[in-house]
Design goal:
Blueprint (H helix, E strand, L loop, with lengths): L13 H16 L13 E6 L5 H12 L3 E5 L12 H10 L4 E6 L4 H8 L5 E7 L5 H16 L9 E5 L6 H12 L4 E5 L7 H4 L4 E3 L2 H4 L5 E4 L4 H7 L4 H8 L3 H4 L7 E3 L12 H4 L6 H21 L4
Parallel strand pairs: 1-2, 1-3, 3-4, 5-6, 5-8, 6-7, 8-9
Helix pairs in contact: 1-5, 1-13, 2-13, 5-6, 5-13
The structure holds phosphoric acid mono(formamide)ester (CP).
Phosphoric acid mono(formamide)ester (CP) binds next to helix 2.
Protein backbone atom coordinates (compact mmCIF):
# COMPACT_ATOMS: atom_id res chain seq x y z
CA UNK A 1 0.00 0.00 0.00
CA UNK A 2 1.27 3.50 -0.86
CA UNK A 3 2.47 5.46 2.15
CA UNK A 4 -0.24 7.94 3.19
CA UNK A 5 2.15 10.78 4.05
CA UNK A 6 1.67 14.15 2.39
CA UNK A 7 5.17 15.55 2.51
CA UNK A 8 5.38 17.09 -0.98
CA UNK A 9 3.28 17.42 -4.13
CA UNK A 10 6.29 16.36 -6.21
CA UNK A 11 5.12 12.73 -6.13
CA UNK A 12 1.40 13.47 -6.48
CA UNK A 13 -0.43 12.74 -9.73
CA UNK A 14 -3.05 14.98 -11.35
CA UNK A 15 -5.69 12.43 -10.35
CA UNK A 16 -4.66 12.51 -6.68
CA UNK A 17 -4.68 16.31 -6.60
CA UNK A 18 -8.03 16.51 -8.42
CA UNK A 19 -9.49 14.00 -6.00
CA UNK A 20 -8.54 16.17 -3.00
CA UNK A 21 -9.84 19.31 -4.78
CA UNK A 22 -13.13 17.54 -5.50
CA UNK A 23 -13.51 16.43 -1.86
CA UNK A 24 -12.72 19.94 -0.59
CA UNK A 25 -15.17 21.44 -3.08
CA UNK A 26 -17.95 19.15 -1.89
CA UNK A 27 -17.19 19.97 1.78
CA UNK A 28 -17.31 23.69 0.96
CA UNK A 29 -20.75 23.33 -0.63
CA UNK A 30 -22.33 20.94 1.87
CA UNK A 31 -24.18 22.07 5.00
CA UNK A 32 -22.13 21.47 8.15
CA UNK A 33 -24.46 18.73 9.35
CA UNK A 34 -23.57 16.67 6.27
CA UNK A 35 -19.81 16.74 6.86
CA UNK A 36 -18.64 13.22 7.63
CA UNK A 37 -17.75 12.44 11.23
CA UNK A 38 -14.93 9.95 11.38
CA UNK A 39 -15.99 8.22 14.59
CA UNK A 40 -12.40 6.99 14.73
CA UNK A 41 -10.47 7.05 17.96
CA UNK A 42 -7.52 8.91 16.43
CA UNK A 43 -6.01 12.21 17.57
CA UNK A 44 -4.52 14.63 15.04
CA UNK A 45 -1.26 15.96 16.48
CA UNK A 46 -0.14 19.44 15.39
CA UNK A 47 3.58 20.13 15.88
CA UNK A 48 4.59 23.56 14.62
CA UNK A 49 8.25 24.45 15.14
CA UNK A 50 7.67 27.75 13.29
CA UNK A 51 4.98 30.39 13.73
CA UNK A 52 1.67 29.99 11.93
CA UNK A 53 -1.84 31.41 12.05
CA UNK A 54 -3.65 30.16 8.94
CA UNK A 55 -2.20 26.67 8.58
CA UNK A 56 -2.26 25.66 12.25
CA UNK A 57 -5.73 27.03 12.98
CA UNK A 58 -7.26 25.61 9.80
CA UNK A 59 -5.80 22.14 10.45
CA UNK A 60 -7.26 22.27 13.96
CA UNK A 61 -10.66 23.40 12.67
CA UNK A 62 -10.56 20.80 9.91
CA UNK A 63 -9.88 17.99 12.38
CA UNK A 64 -12.68 19.17 14.67
CA UNK A 65 -15.09 19.53 11.73
CA UNK A 66 -14.48 15.83 11.04
CA UNK A 67 -15.12 14.91 14.67
CA UNK A 68 -11.48 14.10 15.41
CA UNK A 69 -9.61 15.12 18.54
CA UNK A 70 -6.61 17.43 18.26
CA UNK A 71 -3.42 17.69 20.29
CA UNK A 72 -1.84 21.06 19.56
CA UNK A 73 1.71 20.74 20.90
CA UNK A 74 2.99 23.95 22.50
CA UNK A 75 6.50 23.70 21.07
CA UNK A 76 7.74 26.81 22.88
CA UNK A 77 6.88 25.17 26.26
CA UNK A 78 8.16 21.72 25.30
CA UNK A 79 11.33 19.92 26.39
CA UNK A 80 13.06 21.10 23.23
CA UNK A 81 14.35 23.86 25.50
CA UNK A 82 16.11 21.12 27.55
CA UNK A 83 17.96 19.85 24.50
CA UNK A 84 15.59 17.19 23.17
CA UNK A 85 15.70 16.87 19.38
CA UNK A 86 12.50 17.52 17.36
CA UNK A 87 12.64 13.91 16.09
CA UNK A 88 12.90 12.49 19.64
CA UNK A 89 10.05 14.71 20.72
CA UNK A 90 7.78 13.36 17.97
CA UNK A 91 8.87 9.74 18.62
CA UNK A 92 7.77 10.24 22.25
CA UNK A 93 4.40 11.54 21.06
CA UNK A 94 4.13 8.47 18.82
CA UNK A 95 4.90 6.27 21.84
CA UNK A 96 1.82 7.81 23.51
CA UNK A 97 -0.27 6.34 20.69
CA UNK A 98 -0.45 9.28 18.30
CA UNK A 99 -0.31 8.34 14.61
CA UNK A 100 -1.15 11.47 12.56
CA UNK A 101 1.41 14.28 12.71
CA UNK A 102 0.96 17.67 11.04
CA UNK A 103 4.40 19.23 11.00
CA UNK A 104 5.89 22.65 10.29
CA UNK A 105 9.67 22.98 10.46
CA UNK A 106 12.42 25.22 9.08
CA UNK A 107 14.39 22.29 7.57
CA UNK A 108 13.53 21.43 3.92
CA UNK A 109 14.10 17.72 4.64
CA UNK A 110 12.59 17.40 8.11
CA UNK A 111 9.66 15.22 7.01
CA UNK A 112 11.96 12.80 5.17
CA UNK A 113 14.28 12.55 8.19
CA UNK A 114 11.31 11.98 10.47
CA UNK A 115 9.90 9.28 8.17
CA UNK A 116 13.03 7.19 8.77
CA UNK A 117 12.33 7.27 12.51
CA UNK A 118 8.56 6.78 12.79
CA UNK A 119 6.47 3.65 12.53
CA UNK A 120 5.33 2.81 8.99
CA UNK A 121 1.67 3.26 9.97
CA UNK A 122 2.21 6.79 11.29
CA UNK A 123 1.22 9.52 8.85
CA UNK A 124 3.20 12.72 8.31
CA UNK A 125 1.47 15.76 6.80
CA UNK A 126 3.72 18.63 5.83
CA UNK A 127 2.38 22.01 6.99
CA UNK A 128 5.35 23.91 5.53
CA UNK A 129 9.03 22.97 5.59
CA UNK A 130 11.98 25.25 4.88
CA UNK A 131 11.87 26.79 1.43
CA UNK A 132 10.93 23.53 -0.29
CA UNK A 133 7.33 22.48 0.33
CA UNK A 134 3.96 23.72 1.54
CA UNK A 135 1.66 21.19 -0.11
CA UNK A 136 -1.63 22.07 1.57
CA UNK A 137 -1.13 25.77 0.75
CA UNK A 138 -0.68 24.80 -2.90
CA UNK A 139 -3.77 22.60 -2.77
CA UNK A 140 -5.88 25.43 -1.35
CA UNK A 141 -4.43 27.76 -3.98
CA UNK A 142 -5.46 25.29 -6.71
CA UNK A 143 -8.91 24.96 -5.12
CA UNK A 144 -9.30 28.76 -5.16
CA UNK A 145 -8.28 29.00 -8.82
CA UNK A 146 -10.47 26.06 -9.81
CA UNK A 147 -13.57 27.34 -7.99
CA UNK A 148 -13.14 30.84 -9.46
CA UNK A 149 -12.60 29.80 -13.06
CA UNK A 150 -14.98 26.83 -13.18
CA UNK A 151 -17.89 29.26 -13.70
CA UNK A 152 -16.33 30.26 -17.04
CA UNK A 153 -15.19 26.66 -17.75
CA UNK A 154 -11.53 27.73 -17.90
CA UNK A 155 -9.13 24.93 -17.04
CA UNK A 156 -5.59 25.23 -15.68
CA UNK A 157 -4.28 24.48 -19.18
CA UNK A 158 -5.62 27.80 -20.50
CA UNK A 159 -4.76 30.09 -17.59
CA UNK A 160 -1.81 32.46 -17.49
CA UNK A 161 -0.46 32.66 -13.96
CA UNK A 162 2.08 35.12 -12.51
CA UNK A 163 4.00 34.43 -9.30
CA UNK A 164 5.60 37.61 -7.96
CA UNK A 165 8.30 38.09 -5.35
CA UNK A 166 10.90 36.08 -3.48
CA UNK A 167 10.51 32.76 -5.30
CA UNK A 168 14.02 31.77 -4.19
CA UNK A 169 12.92 31.43 -0.56
CA UNK A 170 9.28 30.53 -1.11
CA UNK A 171 7.98 27.05 -0.26
CA UNK A 172 4.56 28.25 -1.44
CA UNK A 173 5.90 29.13 -4.89
CA UNK A 174 7.65 25.75 -5.24
CA UNK A 175 4.57 23.75 -4.22
CA UNK A 176 2.28 25.94 -6.36
CA UNK A 177 4.59 25.35 -9.33
CA UNK A 178 4.50 21.56 -8.82
CA UNK A 179 0.70 21.56 -8.59
CA UNK A 180 0.21 23.91 -11.57
CA UNK A 181 2.50 21.82 -13.79
CA UNK A 182 0.83 18.54 -12.94
CA UNK A 183 -2.60 20.11 -13.52
CA UNK A 184 -1.51 21.15 -17.03
CA UNK A 185 -0.75 24.85 -16.64
CA UNK A 186 1.57 25.84 -19.49
CA UNK A 187 1.94 29.54 -18.92
CA UNK A 188 3.62 30.49 -15.64
CA UNK A 189 5.32 33.87 -15.33
CA UNK A 190 7.80 34.55 -12.55
CA UNK A 191 8.23 38.26 -11.80
CA UNK A 192 11.13 39.16 -9.52
CA UNK A 193 14.47 40.92 -9.37
CA UNK A 194 17.32 38.75 -10.69
CA UNK A 195 18.61 38.24 -7.12
CA UNK A 196 15.50 36.15 -6.38
CA UNK A 197 15.83 33.85 -9.41
CA UNK A 198 17.64 30.76 -8.15
CA UNK A 199 18.93 27.97 -10.40
CA UNK A 200 15.84 25.79 -9.96
CA UNK A 201 13.65 28.64 -11.22
CA UNK A 202 15.99 29.35 -14.14
CA UNK A 203 15.60 25.69 -15.14
CA UNK A 204 11.86 25.48 -14.40
CA UNK A 205 10.61 26.38 -17.88
CA UNK A 206 8.69 29.35 -16.47
CA UNK A 207 8.91 32.71 -18.28
CA UNK A 208 11.01 35.02 -16.14
CA UNK A 209 10.46 38.78 -16.00
CA UNK A 210 12.08 41.56 -14.04
CA UNK A 211 9.40 44.04 -15.17
CA UNK A 212 5.91 44.00 -13.65
CA UNK A 213 4.46 45.65 -16.78
CA UNK A 214 5.82 42.95 -19.10
CA UNK A 215 5.15 40.01 -16.78
CA UNK A 216 1.57 40.94 -15.98
CA UNK A 217 0.33 41.26 -19.57
CA UNK A 218 -2.86 39.20 -20.08
CA UNK A 219 -2.43 37.35 -16.79
CA UNK A 220 -5.49 35.58 -15.27
CA UNK A 221 -4.09 34.83 -11.81
CA UNK A 222 -1.59 36.83 -9.74
CA UNK A 223 0.06 35.03 -6.82
CA UNK A 224 1.88 37.52 -4.59
CA UNK A 225 4.55 36.34 -2.16
CA UNK A 226 5.46 37.83 1.16
CA UNK A 227 8.67 39.80 1.25
CA UNK A 228 10.65 39.64 4.43
CA UNK A 229 12.00 43.15 4.82
CA UNK A 230 15.03 42.06 6.82
CA UNK A 231 16.12 39.73 4.01
CA UNK A 232 15.98 42.45 1.38
CA UNK A 233 18.71 44.50 2.91
CA UNK A 234 20.80 41.63 4.30
CA UNK A 235 20.97 39.15 1.46
CA UNK A 236 20.39 41.03 -1.76
CA UNK A 237 21.53 44.33 -3.13
CA UNK A 238 18.10 45.94 -3.11
CA UNK A 239 16.73 48.29 -0.52
CA UNK A 240 13.15 47.96 0.60
CA UNK A 241 11.94 51.24 -0.92
CA UNK A 242 13.35 50.28 -4.35
CA UNK A 243 11.72 46.84 -4.10
CA UNK A 244 8.38 48.34 -3.12
CA UNK A 245 8.58 50.91 -5.91
CA UNK A 246 9.30 48.25 -8.56
CA UNK A 247 7.39 45.18 -7.35
CA UNK A 248 4.51 46.24 -5.13
CA UNK A 249 1.18 45.21 -6.64
CA UNK A 250 -0.61 48.55 -6.90
CA UNK A 251 -3.90 49.35 -8.67
CA UNK A 252 -1.81 50.69 -11.60
CA UNK A 253 0.11 47.37 -11.93
CA UNK A 254 -3.06 45.33 -11.53
CA UNK A 255 -4.50 47.11 -14.58
CA UNK A 256 -1.73 45.49 -16.72
CA UNK A 257 -3.29 42.05 -16.07
CA UNK A 258 -6.65 40.97 -17.48
CA UNK A 259 -9.55 42.94 -16.00
CA UNK A 260 -10.93 39.57 -14.82
CA UNK A 261 -7.67 38.60 -13.07
CA UNK A 262 -7.73 37.46 -9.45
CA UNK A 263 -5.17 38.43 -6.81
CA UNK A 264 -3.92 35.75 -4.41
CA UNK A 265 -1.51 35.79 -1.48
CA UNK A 266 -0.78 32.94 0.95
CA UNK A 267 -0.52 35.39 3.85
CA UNK A 268 0.56 36.88 6.08
CA UNK A 269 0.47 39.99 3.89
CA UNK A 270 2.74 42.97 4.40
CA UNK A 271 0.47 45.85 3.47
CA UNK A 272 2.29 48.60 1.64
CA UNK A 273 5.30 46.36 0.95
CA UNK A 274 4.54 43.65 -1.66
CA UNK A 275 0.87 44.58 -1.97
CA UNK A 276 -1.05 47.86 -1.70
CA UNK A 277 -3.98 47.86 0.71
CA UNK A 278 -6.32 48.96 -2.12
CA UNK A 279 -5.44 45.76 -3.99
CA UNK A 280 -5.40 43.43 -0.97
CA UNK A 281 -8.90 44.58 -0.03
CA UNK A 282 -10.10 45.21 -3.60
CA UNK A 283 -12.73 43.51 -5.73
CA UNK A 284 -10.19 41.27 -7.49
CA UNK A 285 -8.64 39.95 -4.27
CA UNK A 286 -9.48 36.36 -3.30
CA UNK A 287 -7.05 36.30 -0.36
CA UNK A 288 -9.69 35.57 2.28
CA UNK A 289 -11.39 33.09 -0.03
CA UNK A 290 -8.07 31.19 -0.03
CA UNK A 291 -8.13 31.15 3.76
CA UNK A 292 -11.71 29.87 3.80
CA UNK A 293 -10.90 27.09 1.33
CA UNK A 294 -7.86 26.18 3.42
CA UNK A 295 -10.15 24.62 6.03
CA UNK A 296 -11.88 22.44 3.41
CA UNK A 297 -8.63 21.35 1.77
CA UNK A 298 -7.27 20.34 5.17
CA UNK A 299 -10.52 18.48 5.88
CA UNK A 300 -10.00 16.56 2.62
CA UNK A 301 -6.37 15.78 3.54
CA UNK A 302 -7.25 14.70 7.09
CA UNK A 303 -10.27 12.66 6.01
CA UNK A 304 -7.93 10.66 3.75
CA UNK A 305 -5.41 10.20 6.58
CA UNK A 306 -8.05 9.25 9.16
CA UNK A 307 -9.65 6.76 6.78
CA UNK A 308 -6.49 4.62 7.00
CA UNK A 309 -7.37 3.89 10.63
CA UNK A 310 -11.04 3.10 9.95
CA UNK A 311 -10.68 -0.64 9.55
N1 LIG B 1 0.12 30.74 4.41
C1 LIG B 1 0.62 30.31 5.60
O1 LIG B 1 1.31 29.28 5.69
O2 LIG B 1 0.29 31.11 6.66
P1 LIG B 1 0.70 30.79 8.17
O3 LIG B 1 2.20 30.91 8.26
O4 LIG B 1 -0.02 31.79 9.01
O5 LIG B 1 0.28 29.38 8.46
Amino acid sequence: MKNQDLTSLSNYSAAEIKNLLQTADSFSKAPKNLWPKTGINQVVCLVFFEASTRTRCSFELAAKNLGADVLNVEVSYSSLSKGESPEDMIKNLEAMGLRIFVIRHSDDHFCETLRQQLLPESIIINAGTGVSDHPTQALLDMATIQQHFSASSQSFEHLKIAIIGDVKRSRVARSDFQALKVLGCKNIHIIAPSEFISKDWQESGCSIYSSMQEGLQDVDVIIMLRIQMERLEKSIKLDSSTYTEKYQLTPKCLAWAKSSAIVMHPGPINRGVEIASDVADGAQSVILKQVALGVFIRMAVLEKALSVFAS
